[in-house]
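To illustrate the input format used throughout this study, we show a single complete record. The first block contains the structure-token representation of the backbone; no residue identities are included at this stage. The design step must infer an amino acid for every position from geometry alone.
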């Protein structure tokens, strides 16, 4: 069964304020749309279409991170945005479609699959949350009477449909509709209610960002790892530290290129994954790693983290030596480490200290490095 996800992200987010539309704003370290797309990928759904306003520069920037996500132009209201997205999906041979608000980044795999599974027996299904608060009818800020809540639900997304049925319903729509369930019902389609989730909030007002952040952070898996490495000085005319060759009156000795900084960072990543250290993955006894550029090791640790669903939160590395001086090279090291790890330079810190001429680093016998790294999985 071919299933597509249609995420509507062409609204202006007027009520949420904040300068740029809410779906492009940063929430718990990445954009709202990043979270929303990730929620569907986590549920195993990768055929994704985002409807956005092509004139919105913030949207263009945010979607650059998702080259494999298709894009369609938004419309004047939500229903016309959905129709544009459905028309753009028409050629793809889609049988089932999930239509979702970009502004609901906390949607869980359970809610997604609840709606999708209902399509086995229903033509349309959508998550609803039974209303639990007592309800009043108000009149001029006075309570005019109670409202029975026994059959009331708060509507959520993703709303799931047989593709051809919802496309026809949208094409036949006259007037406005708040959501796709309303469009479907106007076309006479029965809609099943599936379990909603109180965490599946729609970011609407400014204060909703803090709520969404709390929800997302509570389900995060955050790992911290440390790494430590030492290499001894020997004959040579340069050292390689965090991927940058630096002229020096000695070289560093080691089986590989002896990049002590990169080794400490790599071990920090392995540590965060509880995956031992470089020696376990690249045994020094194996001749193929002799003189190897250490980025092989670092790339392996990054790939291992990625394959387990983690992304790197940040890296902090301290080099301990009297000479060479690190300061003039620290920015180049950050740039190189960013290239290798694929994360932003602003998440990589490289600093140095002397040990006040004390101990082996103080006597100029070698260089030590310490590193810390965080990994985050949502
Ligand atoms: N949406 C859309 N096209 C529109 C209007 C809304 O794609 N013309 C999308 C929004 O981007 C959002 C979802 O529909 O993901 C739900 O709409 P809402 O929460 O009302 O978002 P906005 O319309 O952007 O916000 P506001 O009403 O505060 O301006
Ligand atoms: Mg709106």
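Output of the design step:
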């Amino acid at each position: 069964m071919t299933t597509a996800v249609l995420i509507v992200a062409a609204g202006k987010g007027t009520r949420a304020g904040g300068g740029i539309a809410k779906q492009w704003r940063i929430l718990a370290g990445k954009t709202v749309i990043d979270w929303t797309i990730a929620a569907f990928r986590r549920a195993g759904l990768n055929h994704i279409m985002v409807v956005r306003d092509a004139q919105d520069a913030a949207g263009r920037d945010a979607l650059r991170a998702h080259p494999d996500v298709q894009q369609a132009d938004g419309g004047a209201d939500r229903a016309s945005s959905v129709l544009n997205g459905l028309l753009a999906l028409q050629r793809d041979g889609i049988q089932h479609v999930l239509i979702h608000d970009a502004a609901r980044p906390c949607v869980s795999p359970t809610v997604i699959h609840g709606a999708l599974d209902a399509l086995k027996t229903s033509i349309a299904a959508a998550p609803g949350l039974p209303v639990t608060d007592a309800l009043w009818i108000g009149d001029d800020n006075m309570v005019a009477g109670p409202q029975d809540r026994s059959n009331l639900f708060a509507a959520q997304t993703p709303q799931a449909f047989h593709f051809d049925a919802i496309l026809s319903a949208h094409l036949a729509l006259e007037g406005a509709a708040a959501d796709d369930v309303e469009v479907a019902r106007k076309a006479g389609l029965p809609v099943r209610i599936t379990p909603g989730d109180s965490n599946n909030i729609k970011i609407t007002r400014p204060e909703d960002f803090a709520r969404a952040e709390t929800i997302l952070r509570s389900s995060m898996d955050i790992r911290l790892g440390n790494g430590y490495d030492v290499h001894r000085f020997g004959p040579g005319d340069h050292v390689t530290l965090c991927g940058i060759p630096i002229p020096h009156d000695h070289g560093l000795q080691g089986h590989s290129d002896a990049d002590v900084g990169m080794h400490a960072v790599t071990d920090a990543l392995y540590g965060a994954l509880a995956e031992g250290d470089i020696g376990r993955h690249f045994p020094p006894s194996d001749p193929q790693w002799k003189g190897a550029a250490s980025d092989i090791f670092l790339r392996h640790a990054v790939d291992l983290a990625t394959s387990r669903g983690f992304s790197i939160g940040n890296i902090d590395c301290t080099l301990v030596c009297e000479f060479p001086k690190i300061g003039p090279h620290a920015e180049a090291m950050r740039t190189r480490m960013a290239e290798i790890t694929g994360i932003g330079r602003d998440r990589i810190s490289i600093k140095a200290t002397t040990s006040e001429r004390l101990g082996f680093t103080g006597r100029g016998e070698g260089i030590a490095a310490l590193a810390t790294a965080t990994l985050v999985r949502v």
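Structural context for interpreting the output: Residues 11 surround magnesium ion (ligand 2) (CB under 6 Å). Residues 3-218 form a domain with the Spore Coat Polysaccharide Biosynthesis Protein SpsA; Chain A fold (CATH 3.90.550.10).
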